[in-house]
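seq as requested:
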Amino acid sequence: MIEEYKFGFIRINGKDYDYDVEVRWSDEVLPFIMKERHKIDVEEVEKAVDQKPDTIIIGTGESGLAEVTEKAREEIIRKGIKLIIDKTEEAVKTFNVLKEESEEEEGIKEKVIGLFHLTC
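struct tokens:
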């Protein structure tokens, strides 16, 4: 679970990160790298899409300045994946709620991936 987020910082399961992260339902944390500053395009979401999650949550930064391109949105939706885009603080809350609800349901695990931009 994501324990804390503030500008430029996120704590996940007791470990601190000061860079953008991809968080998977299995609690695996990977770097989330944008080729172009503040632009989330198809290339940035490919790894997450390839995992075939039920939901992808994208945190667009503290002020919401990171843009998710229309092509990236279309790619996610075309694969039948639910997409939620919000400022990172709200996106983190949504991720935690979906993960917690999933864990409470016996035998039902929602596969959720969060892509979180930590600044701007």
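The two ends are 23 Å apart (CA to CA).
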